[in-house]
Known about the structure:
By secondary structure, the protein is an alpha/beta fold. It has seven helices and nine strands; from the N terminus they run E-E-E-H-H-E-H-E-H-E-E-H-E-H-H-E. The chain is globular and about 45 Å long.
Amino acid sequence: MARRKMDDREPAAAGAGTAARAVLNIAAATGETRAVALVLHGGRSESYESVRGRHLSPARMLPFARALQRGGGSDGLAVWTLRNRYRGWNGAEMSPVQDARWALSHISREHPGVPVYLLGHSMGGLTALCVADHPQVEAVVALAPWLNGETPVDRVAGRRILIVHGTDDRWTSPAKSLAYARRADGVAESVDYVALKGAGHFMFRRVGLWNSLANGFILDAFTGSSGRSADDGAGAFRSLLPAAGASLPVVL
């Protein structure tokens, strides 16, 4: 059963969109919730414009959320999709990090102790890595993330990490993502970095592979933590990256 949770925080004081509210769309698991996937969208460097459902950044993540629900919902995987208050990162305010922590607090209240998996694209990938220190987070997928040399790696300590970046990305830097992966190697439980040849930032090219990697990684983590039988999504992921601890990067 799908439901929606509206922002229950006081409106933020800064910027033009002070009445904006974050929204969580929740695809509940069948039966007992055994894990939660939280899906995070991209955005802009600076903007207090309210995020709308028609905007491309949140719409881009809907196929990922639906595939996760199809792949794991019947086994107990709930899929929560966050729509941020504002379109921008907004400097030191880090607006989407605040929103993601708000979402995680609700997950913790409704499902204390269950594993949480984060999936984010672009700014959402950066957000996911920044909030990975939440105690229930076990795995993170960052697609074409917006990273630099100052992005902290201590927050992914003990987590499984997958970073996927297209070699032809002109919006965010594949080189900086790879540098982050190498810094995180040895801090995180495991780090996989996949370079997709010829793919750009918006995941139009090689879309099937973006989906197979991202959703397969999360379903594989879910299989490991829940003890359920592996399904096609997790199996497809393992066929793409069969060797644990493969050298960085893996080029596909």
